[in-house]
């Protein structure tokens, strides 16, 4: 038992080490690329297109889920990391010889997004196989915290490195980070268990579409997972765009702070997600306690949304001022708390799905969950953008808060009646 435990710990360390290194490199590049595109002569529309192309991740998820259950997950992870390194190192070569242009940058974004889409379901499917079930919540919290920390460090040092060494060196460093990640994953002790293939009346194995539909049917037949996926869609479509759509519009249109203050708010949001991930691991790391964590998370989210909405109303700005330290601190605290409590929803839901899903369906299900999370944010952002053209930001947030309160109340009451979860 001791040897098995050491083996599992070694595998987890190797996985976390690889992800931490490559996530840091990817985060630095993600922060820098909009600046580089503008410096190349691109417009705001080009930056928007560059971000939109990340949706290629969502389009490849159905294929990625099937591949993650049919083939060796470790080999998928290693292969996609090596391929990502190859794409980014090609960007380095193009930048070094001054061949780089906007077309190459946009094509590279599509390729990297596709590779990320192939990588993600395989990773989430592997974690329950190398970690004891009782440790899943703590491990998922650690993975979330590590990823958030990578984004935080990327945001902190990305622009400084860009100004100091230029994008060419950053491409090189990011490419090397993916090579290190692949090397770390190659050392993981993992044995692929071939799934039991289902055959039709003629003895033929199911095709890609049949496998995708099989995963959808599994979610629809598992009422708890179906409800959790639906609530996931709500939080990613309605709540996440608050950070990247509502806040920029409100900050530019109603507040009198500098761009430096806006940067501080973005850092606070990331720190909130990091603290929330750590808290979930500390409070619920020994058992899943889904009902308890979701009740806490949904209740706190509802209260914070109400307070945030009040802060956006003109009367609050008149009382506190739109450029005072008091208002800025209140706004920062609210955004930090909102980002933190979302982890009380996202991490336990992911853990429950990992526990309740058979191994040969694992990547299937997480590919569908990935489509919900990755697709929900841009769709929600698009909806917010259109509505905010016509409606004042405080009225929009009031409607969003009331809708979220009603849906959360219905969701919690339905979940608490279920005897399938603890």
Structure description:
It is a single chain. With 422 residues, the chain is mostly helical. It has 2 domains: 2-133 and 159-186, Growth Hormone, Chain: A, CATH 1.20.1250; 208-416, Growth Hormone, Chain: A. It has helices at 2-39, 44-52, 56-70, 73-96, 102-130, 136-186, 208-221, 223-239, 241-254, 259-284, 290-312, 314-320, 325-356, 362-388, 393-416. Helix 1 (2-39) runs antiparallel to helix 5 and helix 8 (223-239) packs antiparallel against helix 13 (325-356). Mean pLDDT is 79; it is low at 1-7 and 199-203.
The gist of it:
With 422 residues, the chain is mostly helical.
Key words describing this protein structure:
422 residues; globular; Growth Hormone, Chain: A; disordered N terminus; mainly alpha; 2 domains
Residues in helices, as a percent range: over 70%
| CATH fold descriptor of the largest domain | Growth Hormone, Chain: A
Question: What is the H-and-E element order?
Answer: HHHHHHHHHHHHHHH
Query: What summary fits the major beta sheet?
Result: none
Query: Which architecture of the largest domain does the CATH hierarchy give at level 2?
Result: Up-down Bundle
* CATH class membership of the largest domain: Mainly Alpha
- Strand percentage: under 5%
Distance between the termini: 28 Å
SS class? mainly alpha
Average the pLDDT over all residues and give the rounded result. Answer: 79
Strand segment tally = 0
Number of helices: 15
Radius of gyration: 22 Å
Uncertain segments are 1-7, 199-203
Count structural domains. Answer: 2
In the CATH hierarchy, what is the superfamily of the largest domain?
Answer: MFS general substrate transporter like domains
Shape descriptor reads globular
